From TrEMBL:
One of its GO terms (molecular function) is purine-nucleoside phosphorylase activity. It is an enzyme of class 2 (transferase). One of its GO terms (biological process) is nucleoside metabolic process. InterPro entries: Nucleoside_phosphorylase_d, Nucleoside_phosphorylase_sf, PUNP, Purine_phosphorylase. Belongs to the PNP/MTAP phosphorylase family. This is Purine nucleoside phosphorylase. Keywords: Glycosyltransferase, Transferase. GO terms for cellular component: cytoplasm. A purine D-ribonucleoside binds at E187, N229. It comes from Paracoccus shanxieyensis. The purine nucleoside phosphorylases catalyze the phosphorolytic breakdown of the N-glycosidic bond in the beta-(deoxy)ribonucleoside molecules, with the formation of the corresponding free purine bases and pentose-1-phosphate.
């Protein structure tokens, strides 16, 4: 049995075999939503091979259970490329999600905005992305499946559902392009200007590898950014991880409303 199938079995033994309808991966400062799920929490440390989400602001546990009447599997934290140099660090968790029978994934992250009309505390739904970090989680994959089409990587149907939920809640959810920088250093003002020229609306250090892996594994996915700051050089505020964590709850409250409404259907 594959490692992911073994872990899926272990999770099913504890949390039941009903397939989750949605997987959710929670970004910096958003991990607490995993605590709202009524179900079984499994610390990543009980799941051999799962990355230790070593960044503060993440809650390293998988919770499988009910949220707004839907069966979900919520990852309270993720690992980032910059923690290990491995762009495929989230491959095993996503394989496990697939092996649990889950076909849809919603990713969340904290991001810097390049648009004045999308300020800190607001949300952005990813319409597309730019893998500017210059690597790919499928490097080294030997099967033909590695040539993943990325034309419609951000699922239109899930996006429409999220838009509908946002509208119903009176929450603005503009769409935009997310540009993946490797981190962990923040961008320079020149890099932010370059990202704007390239067509980006927001920048961040995560999510893109997981979108690529999701498409590779046949999971449909969409991603929402919580804007915690303006990109470097675009405002006077300081940029830091502490600032990210301090600002994330503002947008996180809106995101939680949208996600709950989305799940309620
Ligand atoms: N840049 C990259 N990642 C981020 C930012 C940023 O400005 N804010 C939150 N995550």
């Amino acid at each position: 049995m594959s490692k992911s199938a073994e872990l899926a079995r272990l999770i099913q033994d504890r949390a039941g075999t009903e397939p989750p309808e949605y997987g959710l991966i929670l970004g910096s400062g958003l991990g607490h939503l995993s605590e709202a799920v009524q179900g079984v929490a499994i610390p990543y440390s009980d799941l051999p091979g799962f990355p230790h989400a070593g960044v503060s602001g993440h809650v390293p546990q998988l919770v499988v259970g009910q949220l707004e009447g839907r069966r979900v599997a919520v990852f309270g934290g993720r690992s980032h490329y910059y923690e290990s140099g491995r762009a495929d660090i989230m491959r095993l968790p996503l394989e496990v999600l697939r092996d649990l029978g889950c076909g849809q994934l919603i990713l969340t992250n904290a991001a810097g905005s390049l648009r004045a009309e999308n300020p800190p505390g607001s949300l952005m739904l990813l319409s597309d992305h730019i893998a500017f970090a210059g690597t790919n989680p499928l490097i080294g994959e030997t099967t033909e499946a590695r040539f993943v089409p990325m034309t419609d990587a951000h699922d239109r149907q899930i996006r429409a559902g999220l838009q509908g939920a946002a509208q119903a809640e009176g929450v603005d959810l503009p769409e935009g392009v997310y540009c993946w920088f490797s981190g962990p250093s923040f961008e320079t003002p020149a890099e932010i200007r370059a990202a704007r020229v390239l067509g980006a609306d927001a920048v961040g250090m995560s999510t893109v590898p997981e979108v690529i892996l999701s498409r590779f594994l046949g999971l449909r996915c969409a991603a929402v950014s919580v804007i915690t700051n303006m990109g470097a050089g675009l405002s006077d505020e300081s940029i830091s991880h502490d600032h990210t964590k301090a600002m994330a709850p503002l947008g996180a409250a809106l995101l939680e409303k949208v996600l709950r409404r989305f799940l309620r259907g």
